[in-house]
Amino acid sequence: MTESRTVLVTGGAGGIGRGIAAAFLDAGDRVVLADIDADAVATAAAELGTGSVAVDITDASSVARAIAQVEQEHGPIDVLVNNAGILSVHGSVTELAADDYRSIVDVNIIGTFTMTQAVAKRFIAHGNPGAIVNISSIGGRQPTPGMGAYESSKAAVDSITRWAAIELAGHGVRVNAVAPGPVLTPMLAMGMPEGSPARAAWTSRIPLGKLAEVGDIAPAVVFLAGPSAAHITGVSLAVDGGQLLV
């Protein structure tokens, strides 16, 4: 029987993060949801039966406090899922304001780095060969006009994944990423309802003929964090219905 692990999932209050948390719970792990929205993450945790912690991943002091709280309440972290990210602005390379771009960089790049660094230090301090799984995007490899700020931030997440993987391998720490295509979270489904031209346009780009469900993403994360992936590190696994093929 596999020993239960402590899994910290950032951006855990809803959408993909909540689905990932549920999948780890089903695997028998202890899960702690982390999110900048303290009320939302507490509500989600109560509904799922997990722990919760409020954290601003762009603030190193906030991250340090959150990790200390998790360790005090749940023991050392075994798995970090860097799911928190934003897709807050759109704009062409000739029109997007630098400050708008910076808001995405702060969360998606600096936030991922800050969480990775802080938890990796704890892995090393505890002598724990833990695992980190970052949520990237196939957009980091396949551009879409108007989405370059987000997509370039996810290309950086893939780079951080490889950087951390090569430097932490000597400590037995594995670092991988899952790169989804568009995922039908409640927010996305609201903005692109069934039958809408926008939904049809995205679906037409996917060889398997449908957008991913949250349940298509979570198993890949659990796999990369688990013993079946013990010899896998530094990869960014596309879960995209074949979109990168076209």
UniProtKB/TrEMBL annotation:
<dbReference type="InterPro" id="IPR036291">
    <property type="entry name" value="NAD(P)-bd_dom_sf"/>
</dbReference>
<dbReference type="Pfam" id="PF13561">
    <property type="entry name" value="adh_short_C2"/>
</dbReference>
<keyword id="KW-0520">NAD</keyword>
<protein>
    <submittedName>
        <fullName>Glucose 1-dehydrogenase</fullName>
        <ecNumber>1.1.1.47</ecNumber>
    </submittedName>
</protein>
<keyword id="KW-0560">Oxidoreductase</keyword>
<dbReference type="GO" id="GO:0047936">
    <property type="term" value="F:glucose 1-dehydrogenase [NAD(P)+] activity"/>
</dbReference>
<dbReference type="InterPro" id="IPR057326">
    <property type="entry name" value="KR_dom"/>
</dbReference>
<comment type="similarity">
    <text>Belongs to the short-chain dehydrogenases/reductases (SDR) family.</text>
</comment>
<feature type="domain" description="Ketoreductase">
    <location>
        <begin position="5"/>
        <end position="181"/>
    </location>
</feature>
<dbReference type="InterPro" id="IPR002347">
    <property type="entry name" value="SDR_fam"/>
</dbReference>
